[in-house]
Amino acid sequence: MSVVSKTDPAAAGTRRAIVQGLAAVGAGVGNNALVQMLSSLPTAQIVILRAASTIILLAPLVVVQGLRIPTRIAVIRGALEAAGTLLLVIALVLSSLSFVSTIMMIIPVGVMSAASVFIGEPISWRGRVLVLLSFGAALLATAPVLSSNTTGAASAICSALCYIARDLLTRKYPTIASSFEMSLLASGLTLLAIFLVFDPARWQPVPMTLWPTVGGMVILYVVSNLLIVAATRHGPATLVASTRYSAVIWAVLFDLALFKHIPTAMTLAAAGAIILCGLGLTFTERRSHP
Hints:
The protein is mainly α. It has one domain (about 25-290).
C-alpha cells in the first residue's frame, strides 16, 4: 500500500492549482470592484479603456507565441465573450458586487446543464436536482433586484448566459488558441463593437486620480487570466472550476472594504445554496462519469 508523501509532486501540484485558482478568482473579482469604482465614467468608456489597455499588454505576448488567423469558431467565441464583458460592466455599474458575483457563480452549473441538453453529455438524476436547486437559488437572488433595478439584474443574467454559451462552444469545439489569444481577440471585438455605437462626444477626460484605478483594473484582469491558465495546467479541471465558487467570498470582502456595502441576507443565502449545489454537482458527476 503506497502512502502519498509530503513531497508528492501530484499533491503539491494540486495544492498549487487550488491556490492559483483562488487567487485567479480574487483577481477577477478585484477587477470587477475597480470597474465599479470607475462608474462615474460612461459605461462604454470604461469598456474601451479596459479593452484597449488589455490589447496593449497582451499583443506582445501573442506576437512572441506566434500570430495565427482565428478560426470561425474562435471569432464566435470571442464575440460571445465581448458581449458578456460589456453586459457584465453594465451590471457592475448598476448593481452591487456581491449580487453580480452570485449570478456569475451559476456559470459552471449552466455549462454542465447546457452540455447535457445540446451536446448530450450525461448527467445523473441527482445532478438534475442540483441544477434545478442552483437555478432556483439564482432566481431568489435576482427577484428583489429585478423589482428595483431591472437593467442591472437583466444585464447580469444576460452576461452569465453569454459566458455559458462561450464555454459550451469551447467544450464542443476545443481550440488550440491560448488564453492570451482568446482574450486579445475578445478585446479587439469588444473595441470594434463599442466604436460602432459609441458617440465620441460622450468621452470624458479621465481625472489623474482615476488612472491608478484604470491601471489596476487592467492588471488584475490580465493576472486573473494568467493564474487560471497556470491553475489548469497544475491541477484537475474539475477542482480548478470549483474554486470559482469562492467569488462571493471575495465579493463580500471587496464590498465591505471599498464600498461599505453589506450584502442582503437573500444574496448571501442564494450564494450559499449555489456554492453547495455547484460543488455537489461537480463532484457527483465526476464520480458518476470518471
